[in-house]
């Protein structure tokens, strides 16, 4: 009985080996497919890494630009507030107000005369 058992095991092993012999090729094919998929995934990851790096550089560039614009707006705000304060000082006194009104009237009169003269020259010409 023992001899028969050993023969059965040998035959079983031999048939199992022949049965799974073809799977080594299949498994190699799967490994090649996995390697290709892994390379494809690595390519995609490196592409995404480059894209995110480019986006990061673009965001940094825009942040620097916005900071410059903000600084220029702050300086313009300071200049405007200084100018408004000077106008307030000028208009606080009545004599200054009268002289400013007189200057504005002369400027308006000059502009009106200038456009009337241009209009007359256009009509004549």
UniProtKB/TrEMBL annotation:
It is a single-pass type IV membrane protein. Its main location: endoplasmic reticulum. One of its GO terms (cellular component) is Golgi membrane. It is found in: Endoplasmic reticulum membrane; Golgi apparatus membrane. Keywords: Coiled coil, Endoplasmic reticulum, ER-Golgi transport, Golgi apparatus, Membrane, Protein transport, Transmembrane, Transmembrane helix, Transport. Residues 28-90 form the T-SNARE coiled-coil homology domain. Coiled coil: none annotated. The chain crosses the membrane at residues 102-123. Required for vesicular transport from the ER to the Golgi complex. Functions as a SNARE associated with ER-derived vesicles. This is Bet1-like SNARE 1-2. It comes from Cardamine amara subsp. amara.
């Amino acid at each position: 009985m023992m001899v028969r058992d050993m023969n059965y095991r040998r035959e079983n092993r031999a048939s199992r080996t022949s049965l799974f012999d073809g799977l080594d090729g299949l498994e190699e094919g799967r490994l090649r497919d996995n390697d290709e998929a892994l390379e494809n995934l690595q390519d995609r990851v490196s592409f995404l890494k480059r894209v995110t790096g480019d986006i990061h550089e673009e965001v940094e560039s825009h942040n620097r630009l916005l900071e410059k614009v903000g600084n220029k707006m702050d300086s313009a705000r300071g200049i405007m507030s200084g100018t408004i304060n000077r106008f307030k000082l000028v208009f606080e006194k009545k004599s200054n107000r009268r002289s400013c009104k007189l200057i504005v009237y002369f400027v308006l009169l000059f502009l009106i005369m200038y456009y009337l003269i241009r209009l007359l020259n256009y009509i004549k010409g």
